[in-house]
Amino acid sequence: MHLWAMDVSPDTAASASLRFGADGESGSVPGAEAEVTALYRKHALGLGRLAYVMLGDKAAAEDAVQDAFIGLYRRWHHLSDPAKALPYLRASVLNQSRLALRKAKRMPRGGVVLATQVFATSAESAVLSAEQRREVAAATRRLPRRQREVLVLRFYLELTDAEIAHELGIALSTVRSTLHRGLSALGIALKEEL
Amino acid sequence: MTQGQFRAALHGAAEEFTDGDLGPLRLQQRASAVRRLTQSGRRVNWSGGRAPRVLAPLAAAAAVVAIVAGAVALSANGVRPHAPAQSASNRAMALLNQVPDPAADAGLPQYYVAIDVDIHDVGYGPAATKDERTVVGDLATGATIKVSLPGLFVEGASVSADDRTFVFLATSEGKLYFYLGRLNTTKRTVSLSRLPIAASSQYLSFGLSPSGTALAVAAFSAPSPRRLLSTVKIYALNGRLLRAWQSRSQVFSPTEGPMAWAQNGMLDLGVLFQGVTVLNVGARGGSLLPATRRVIPTLGPGWTLTTITTIAGNGQTMAAAPVKVLGRGFASTQFVVFSAGTGHVTRRSWLTGSLFAEVVVWDSYSGSEQIVEAPVSVSAKHPSYAYGVLTNGRFVPFLHFPFPNEGFHTLLAF
To answer: What are the strands of the beta sheet with B330-333, ordered from one edge?
Structure first.
């Protein structure tokens, strides 16, 4: 058997050092709450930012992160491999983001407000005007789900094609094509709007 | 805008979210606002559960570079006159049942179509302005022919078994077009002509018949969870509709790329939920479900069937490179051949060394040999690939493949 070594993200590597219980029930595992809380302290901000990029709404992003950790806590007794914690949390956040976006489309008024945020200036993105960043963020969120996720995983989380394929459960070639398709669509959208 | 600026924009946006936006972990609360809003929604399963492939990705990459000799003759519109005008159903059947010269089944294919784009070198802007690379090549000599469609972006291809015919799916400004390509091996030229076949859905797969005389287009749309529509249409190359099936359910998941079409009339519609949907193109048009069957390979626990499968020319076996996620960033890939009837895996192999089969590019008539794309480097940052023949569990790279270490988005041999 040949292993495919994917360059794991620093966060993944960090989570691998944690010890997960293999006994007990979810939520009632001795120490589970403390372990999950420790993971929360370590990863919540990064996951929150991921959700925020996907959703453009801080409250919804925070909810997505909370739900992901609640899910992990409930499934604690299923967790046998510590390295699965962060991938699970990340997948959960992405899934919550999908659900929130889907729900938001059904609820144009009220509910979660999405894709209307104007991102403020930051040092890293100062080369772009606030207007340009707003356009980029909004255009990204209007992409089809998979394109949006692949672009965010690549350009925000800096995952490789192989890692994205692993994360989303799709073929490597699909990652490449979706990445390209997303970039094309984004370029067209931005050209039309700028 | 550059990709660097896009990256910076995402990071800048992300930094808007700070520690102050996070409350304390509320483990004891039953549901957050998102959960309440999405109570009926599907949850992530622990056991590696992913959202089902309701919509497969849109079409692919594409673009072009070129090398060597050969002229590209473009005819602006219309189809070449080889496609006979037919109207009667029996003549349609005759067209569907055409098979290439049996001589074409002997041995490995000599030619290939390769489509690629170097995403890292591509900035934003209209797709048609990107640096494309689409090549038709000769595996025997290493010669390649540059192919380009001005103003269009080649996204995918399908090839016939007649060693000279292929179809491109190209886009421009969001519209999709099919182009028929023919290789003249004597003059070393490729001619392209636009097919009068509409491609309106972005979620589609397409496949050229083994004889190169008909094109199957499979599309799936899901404007809402209650409005699913799967359609498969087969056209003569003059645009005449030969067969059409549809279903108000998801029968397949379009792969954005080619569908393998066996010479016994079995059309591989692609993978859906760990099974391959196969259509009998000889079946009467109408309802799609009765014309299809599911082939579920016996892969074993933990193995995931990826989106690309091929079918042998005789339609008896299928080939795929399933993946097993091992955790901690590791995955394993194997290469399997399984019965197109029962799904029983008849051949299972891992390649030696650091290689593993990644994509099955071509399947022989008998299913005994496959052309595969195999990574030769496990570096996820800078992977390199080789193309070659997998026979008896042994991988033999092509001698005259002029793009060492490159992985193409699409590479099809014919």
So the answer is: A3-5, B330-333, B323-327, B303-304
Q: Which of A16, A107, A133 sits opposite B13 (nearest CB)?
A: A133
B106 C-beta neighbours (distance < 10 Å), count:
9
Q: In what order do the strands lie in the sheet with B165-172?
A: B72-75, B189-199, B175-184, B165-172, B153-159
pLDDT tens per residue across span B16-66: 888 888 888 876 543 333 232 222 222 222 122 222 222 122 222 222 222
What CA–CA distance (Å, rounded) separates A154 from A175?
Answer: 10
User: B209 and B261 in contact (C-beta within 8 Å)?
Assistant: yes
**Tell me: the pLDDT tens digits for B91-110?**
555 555 555 444 344 568 88
Could you say which of B6, B35, B328 has the minimum Cβ distance to residue A81? Answer: B328
List C-alpha distances in Å: A186 to A49, A175, A182, B128, B343: 21, 16, 6, 14, 40
pTM score of the predicted model: 0.54
Q: Please indicate if any CB of chain A lies within 8 Å of the CB of B393.
A: no
The CA distances from residue B356 to B22, B332, B391, B409, in Å, are 43, 8, 13, 17
Strands of B227-236's sheet in order across: B204-208, B214-224, B227-236, B241-247, B286-287
Whether the per-residue pLDDT at B75 is higher than 60: the answer is no
Sign of torsion over alpha carbons B25, B26, B30, B34:
negative
Segments of B237-380 assigned E as strands? 241-247, 266-272, 275-280, 286-287, 292-295, 303-304, 309-311, 317-320, 323-327, 330-333, 335-339, 345-349, 359-363, 369-375
Look at residue B16 and give its three-state secondary structure.
Answer: coil
A37:B27 CB<8 A: yes
Contact by Cβ (8 Å): B113, B66: no
Cβ proximity of B195 and B149 under 8 Å: no
Rounded to 10 deg, the angle between the A85-106 and A145-155 helix axes is: 140
| Partner-chain contact B58 A136, CB within 8 Å | no
At residue B56's C-alpha, the angle toward residues A63 and B320, to 5°, is 120
Pick from A66, A91, A145: which is nearest to B26 by CB? Answer: A66
Q: What DSSP letter does each residue of A72-132 carry, written as one string?
A: HHHTGGG---GGGHHHHHHHHHHHHHHHHHHHHHH-SSSS---S---PPP-STTTTS-HHH
The answer to whether the beta carbons of residues B15 and A122 sit under 8 Å apart is: yes
Q: Considering only alpha carbons, which residue of chain B is nearest residue A174?
A: B57
Tally of CB atoms within 10 A around A60 = 27
Whole-complex ipTM: 0.72
Our CA-based measurement puts residue B173 at a distance from the nearest CA of chain A, in whole angstroms, of 8
Residues sharing a CB contact under 8 Å with residue A104, sequence separation 6 or more, in sequence order: A111, A112, A113, A114
Q: Could you write out the DSSP letters of every residue in B275-317?
A: EEEEEETTSPSEEHHHHEEEE-----TTEE--S-EEE-TTSSE
